[in-house]
Amino acid sequence: MAPDQTALDDAGAPPPIRLRDMGSLHVGGHDVRLSGLPCREVVMAEGGQPVSLDPNGTYRVEQMYAQYFLAEPASGRPPLAFWHGGGMTGAAWETTPDGREGWLNAFLRRGWDAYLCDAVERGRAGYALVPEIWPEAPIVQTREDCYTRFRIGRPGTRPGPDSAYPNTQFPIAAFDRLAAQMVPRWVHTDAAILQGYLALLERVGPMIVVCHSQAGVFGIRAAQARPDRVRAVVALEPASIPLLAPDADYRTPTLIVMGDNMDTDPRWPRMRARVQDFARRYPCVTVLSLPDVGITGNSHMLMMDRNSLDLAGRVHDWLMNLPPG
Amino acid sequence: MAPDQTALDDAGAPPPIRLRDMGSLHVGGHDVRLSGLPCREVVMAEGGQPVSLDPNGTYRVEQMYAQYFLAEPASGRPPLAFWHGGGMTGAAWETTPDGREGWLNAFLRRGWDAYLCDAVERGRAGYALVPEIWPEAPIVQTREDCYTRFRIGRPGTRPGPDSAYPNTQFPIAAFDRLAAQMVPRWVHTDAAILQGYLALLERVGPMIVVCHSQAGVFGIRAAQARPDRVRAVVALEPASIPLLAPDADYRTPTLIVMGDNMDTDPRWPRMRARVQDFARRYPCVTVLSLPDVGITGNSHMLMMDRNSLDLAGRVHDWLMNLPPG
Q1: B263 Cβ partners below 8 Å, 6+ apart?
Q2: Which of A63, A302, B264, B313 has its CA 20 to 30 A from that of B228?
Q3: Rounded to an integer, what distance in angstroms lies between the CA atom of residue A222 and that of residue B316?
């Protein structure tokens, strides 16, 4: 059994993290060839020589990126795949905005192997920002939009300690550091993102998918497409539930965790209703609505909220109690 | 003294990597406020509700991202800051295209703390892809351009084992995996990138900068701006040398490493001449031209070439022999 590395030492510091390996890989994607375009003269660095840049040639597009951290000793459990939400990257699972350990460390300390992913078009995955390949413009969320959409403060308010939900668990003084980690996203890339994640499962083998917000759809879709490769799905506040066919089979153990303060925003009660419908239809789906078990104030950013490590512990316990598969 | 963790065990496997902490941070950047723009209706996820996206508001732009890995036990040496080249991200220092350990692991195993950085506008740093903020289009290098510009094969050839330099150290069969990690870059962002790196130095304290290609300029500029915070610079094939003022002082110990096969491409001999001028002018600058010491075939991607771990060992030795500062 893998050791629990969550206990503090006598000085109150956590013990070292021990990894039998760490590294990264890019998987999936395909080549696109462009021709017949004019060259462009550019100076690529201060003091550099002007060079002629020929846009004609081959581009690798729609690959994804995963950074792996393999806990020592090996636990024998399937690795966790961390899939971030829209406008975010793998950084969402690292240090919290207020500087505490994130879920990546929390699960490594409990002996899990982890693949910290950047989806297609996000972060270190790269993105096909050549107008002949992706003509669409991305969207970028403003700080104000994040603040209310992520249910840190009530719709119509502006970021600040006075406008936050009174019971918020989000570390509101560090909201700027959440804003700093938001990146552009496209809205036409769902199929490409899912293909990237399926390529990861193909490469690595059976995994447990821990997904947030936008990635909830990808977690459920991946489990449906490759039930042999997705042992369980943990979806933190999925932004949507995919529309499965009426006769679709879905048997992957799935835990959906939902936070608080949903009733003041018209978007969230609709989403909660879809989550509840999904759970009614498939007995393998468990919904953990935190306010229903007395845990109040959680925002959409469950893995950053002040009680994030307690929530990680609950998810760990749920995973450890799954039937062996 | 920090232990050397590079020795293999009896089964030929490297020992575990031990970290006293790991996490990430975003530093630098500034807020931009937009107003008076029309809203846009978008569906943000499959099956999701159409939402009105209001682009008016505040954007955090030009921050940078650093992922830190702190070796256990602490060595007492300044941490290394890994600064990637143009069109790349921090992934450049991780697993090599052919699946070997990268420089990040190589230096962690020698007891160094490391900050794996994504520059402003690259990777997990995010980028201000709002046309009202950054009207310029990025450039994206084709696979063919990378192949010759990085001196894997001779100008005018196409990627493939037959066209590579006969003595190339680049793992040519894995060239596709280098192509997969290339991302778009802008060419108007030098000042913002440097500001981001200075913010990192301000936050962390004295560091040793290990920089590649485009980042050579940033390493030297940062050392000039903050000699108290840059203890040494290791520049792998800098793409340029900044134009320092005639009376500029430069006293930071600096090692510049240059590879092979420069004479067949008009860009590289010019660059080598600038590097040699720089070293003649400042006695703190050491140039290690690998062919001059009998190491042949290195491409522009020194940290990915087949002899990358040998080169890491040479850089480590140079750093360990610096006078205490």
Answers
A1: B269
A2: B313
A3: 44
Closest CA to A200 of A90, A54, A57: A90
Q: Are strands A17-34 and B17-34 parallel, antiparallel or unpaired?
A: antiparallel
Q: Is A44 exposed, middle or buried (0-12, 13-18, 19+ CB in 10 A)?
A: buried
State the nearest Cα–Cα gap between A185 and chain B, in angstroms.
9
Q: Which of A8, A67, A124, A195 is best to mutate for the B interface (most B CBs within 10 A)? A: A124
**ipTM for the assembly:** 0.95
Q: What is the pLDDT of residues B251-301, one digit of tens each?
A: 999 999 999 999 988 889 999 999 999 999 999 999 999 999 999 999 999
Instruction: Count Cα neighbours of B121 within 13 Å in the Cβ-side half-sphere.
Output: 26
- Check CB contact under 8 Å for B242 and A47: yes
Using a CB-CB cut-off of 8 Å, the residues of chain A touching B145 are 53-54, 57
Query: Which ranges constitute the DSSP H helices of chain A?
Result: 103-109, 143-149, 175-179, 190-204, 215-225, 267-281, 308-320
Chain B residues near residue A20 by CB distance under 8 angstroms: 16-17
Task: Report the residue count for chain A.
Answer: 325
Is B17–A18 a contact, with Cβ atoms under 8 angstroms apart? yes
Whether this model's pTM surpasses 0.80:
yes
